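Let's do one together. I've listed all components of the complex below, 707 residues spread over two lines.
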Amino acid sequence: MELLYILCVPLLAAIGSLIPRVRILAPGITLISSTSVLILSVETALHTISAKEVVAVPGWISCDSFGALIIVLVALVGFAAAIFSWGYIDRISETRQGIIVRPYYALFNLFLVSMLAVPLFSQVALVWIAVELTTLLSVFLVSFASTPEALEAAWKYVVLTCMGAAIALLGVLMLYWGMSGVSQEPFTWAGLTAASSNMSPSLLNTAFFFILIGFGAKVGLVPLHTWLPDAHSQAPSPICALLSGVETTVVLYTIMRLFPLLQGTPAANMGMWLVIFGLVSAGVAAFLLIQAKDYKRMFAFSTVEHMGIILVAVGVGSYGAHFGAMLQIVGHGLTKALCFFAAGITMLTTGNRDIGSIRGLIRISPIAGFFLVLGALGVAGAPPFALFLSELTILKAGLASGQYWVTGLLATFIVIAFFGILFQINHMVFGKPATMSKTTLPATCVAAAVIIVLPVILLGVYIPGPVYDLLRLAAYSLGR
Amino acid sequence: MLDTTMITTTLAKLNALAGGLFLLTAFALVATRQVLACLRVYIGQSVLLAFSAVFLGALHGSVHLFVVAAITLAIKCILIPWLLRRTVGEDIYARREISQILNVPMSLLIAVAIAFFAYAVATPLLAVSLHPNESINLPIGMAGLFLGAYTICVRREAIPQLIGILAMENGAFFAGVSIASGLPLIAELAAAFDVLIIALVMGLLTRKIHKYMGTTNVGEMTSLREE
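Okay, and this is what the predicted structure of the assembly comes out as:
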C-alpha cells in the first residue's frame, strides 16, 4: 500500500500548492508531502531488504531493492530541494518581477511524482511513459526564469529528450514483440528477464540499442549530451539539484534494468557497448568541464562524467563493479545536489554565474565558500567523501576482472576531472575579492545544504548496515 | 473458404497501401515549408495510422486495435490540431519558413537514404516474424521514426520541429499496431495521453518563446554553447 501512497501524496500536494491567497501554503504543503514521501520510501526500502519485493498492484506497480534504492535517493534529494526552494524561490521572486510561486511548487511536486513513478512502475510500457513525463513536467521548471537563455535551454531539452523517447518507444515495443512470441507473462522487468533467453538475440540487441540511444539522450551520454549543460545551468538551483542529481540516474536505472536481459543471449557483447559509451562520455565531459566558464555548467558536465563512470561499471559486469555502480549512484545524487545548493547560495551572494569574475568567495561569504569547496571536493572524488569510495570500488573491480585498458582510461579521466574541478573552484573561492557586498542567506538554503552534506561525508567513511544491505541486493539484481 | 482468403489478402493489400502512403507523408514532412501544410500532412499521416490499425484489427479479429484507431483519430486528428491553434495562435501558425538549412531536392535525397537505412535495420528482425504484415509495418514505422528525427534536424521553426516529434511517435506506433497489438489498453491510452501532453507543453513553450523573444525561429537561438 505504501507504494500507492508514495505516488498519491505528491499528486495531492501539487493540487494543494495551487490554492491561492496564503503565501506560505504552497512551500509548506510541498515540505510536508516530501517529508512523508521520504518516510514512506525509507519504510519501503526496509521492507524490500527483508521481503525482496513489495508489490502494490501485481504486474503493474511493485518495487524491489534496486527500485527502493532509487526512490529513497529521489525522496531524500526532493526533501532537501523542497527546503532549499523555500528561501531561494522567495528571494529570486523578490528581485525579479513576473515570477509566480504557486505554479513552481505545483510543477515541483508533479516532477517529483514522475521521477518516483519510474522505479515504482514494473510494466515496461508505463515506465516509458513515466520517463517521458519527467521531461514534460520539468520543462517549465527549466524555463522558470523566462530569460532568453532559459527558454532556449528548455526548448533544446524538450526537443532532444522527446526525440530520444520516441526512439526508445520503438525499442520498448520491439521488446514486447519479442516477449509476446515466447511467454505469456505480463510485460514487466521480471517477465522480460525470464523470457529473454528464448527471445531472438538480434531482436534483443536492436531493441537494446534503440533504448540505449533513446534514453541515453536523456541521461546525457556523449554525443547526445548537448542539451544537458544548458538545461542544468539555466534552471533554478533546487531544480538543478533534482535534474542533475536524480533525474539522470532515474533514467539510467531503466537502461541498467536491461542489463540482466542481455547476459542470457549468446554472442551479444552488450557490456562492451556500455563500456564504450561510458568511456566516451566520461572522457569528453572531463575535458569539457575544464573549459566551462559558468560554474553551474561545470557541475553539469561533471554529471555527464559520472553517468559515464556508472555505465562503465555496469558494463564491466562483475558483482564488485555493480556494487560500486550502486554506491556511485547514491554518491552522485547526494553530492551533485550539494554542489547545486552551493551554486545556488553562491548565486544569491554574488548574483553572478561566471567563474572568471568571482574571486575570494570565502571572504565575501564564508558559508557559500565552505559549501562550494565541500561540494567540489565531494564531486571530484576526494577522500573521505562518498564518491571517492565508489570510484575506488569501481576501479578495483575493473582491475580484478582484468580489464586494464578500461580501468586505466577511466582512472585517467577521473583524475583529469578532479584537477579540472578543483582548479576552477580554487579560482573562485580563494584569492582577493574585488567587491565586498554582504548579503544574508536564507536560513532554509543553509539548512538544506547541511542536511545533504551529512550523508555525503558519512557514506565516505562508514556505510550503515541497512544501506549496505540495500546496495548489495541492488547490485545482485543486475546479475542474472 | 475462398471468401475468407480473399478478404484476408485484400485487407493485407489495403494495409500495404496505407503503409506506402504513410511513408509518403513522412517524406512530405521533410519537404513541406509551410507551417500549416506541415500540420495537414501530420493529420493525414495520423489518419493512415488509424486505417492501418483498422485493417490489422479486421485481419486479426481484434477489437482492441479498433479502439486504438479510435483513440488515434480523436487525439491526433482533432484534439492536437485544436490544441495547437489555441495555444500557439494563428499568426505563428500561418508562417512560412524562409531560411532553409538544405534545399528540398538535397534533403529528399538524404531522406531516401534514411529510408533505406531503416529497411536495413528492420530486415534482420523479421526473421522471427509470424505475420506477413509485420514486414510492412515495422520497416515503414522505423523509416517514419528516422525521417521524423531528420525533419527536426533540418527545420528551424518551432512548430515544424514539434510536428517532427509527433511524427516520430507516429512512426513508432505504426510499427506498434502490428508488432505490439496485444499491449494492454491502459498503456495505449496513457501513451496517447502522453502525446497530447507533448503537444500542449511544446505549444505553450512556443508561445512563451514568441512572447519573450519575438520569434519562433528556434534554430537561431544559439546563446548557449561551448566556446
